[in-house]
Amino acid sequence: MSDVTHCLEITKYVVDDVARAAGALLPEPSAVPESAKYLRVSSGQEVQEPQYSYFVRAWDATEDEHNPLLDAADAADAAHDASTTTGVKWSHHVHLQCEPYTALDAPLTEFVYWNLKDGAEPAVVRALLTRLMAVVNAIPREEGMHKAGWGSVVGDETKYFVVIGWDTMEAFVTAVANSPAGRALLDDLAEHTVREVRHTVLNHPQAVVEARL
């Protein structure tokens, strides 16, 4: 039996004022084959720059299911971009190292988009991200952290994502301030990458989790 891959599609949109006023922040989800075990469809406005919104699809799939799923998702993106937004800033498919649903369902979801600098070694960055996630996941739940994970962008070993669930922005700020080990790893990563840290409150209007047995 093939191993399960945690698949995440993250699209960052520029949403115009007319579309935002009409509530048109969420394209219709693409069809996902019945063999996909779980599905999350989410959207939310960015906290830092509200002109941006995020559209997120998450599912688990075996290796032989993965490419057809991505083909379907890409087709849906092309069909809905023009009607819902003024443009797509970026869109990526990510293979995560752990399930994303806990972080996506948190009151606040953090996306960190990492781009390698010229000459940086992907293996070094992957090792640092693994260590950073160990530090973050050691934060007690009562301090406002739900779950953290990282993954690589499909087809591009120079791009990575971290997804973290928080109770509040204050919990995020406090966690960074109280973690010398985490800040040291962020400094190490800054030598090899450029990162974009953003937060959003995601909505799940299409159904939360659908189990297909």
UniProtKB/TrEMBL annotation:
Taxonomic superkingdom: Eukaryota
Protein name per Swiss-Prot or TrEMBL: ABM domain-containing protein
Species assigned in the record: Phanerochaete sordida
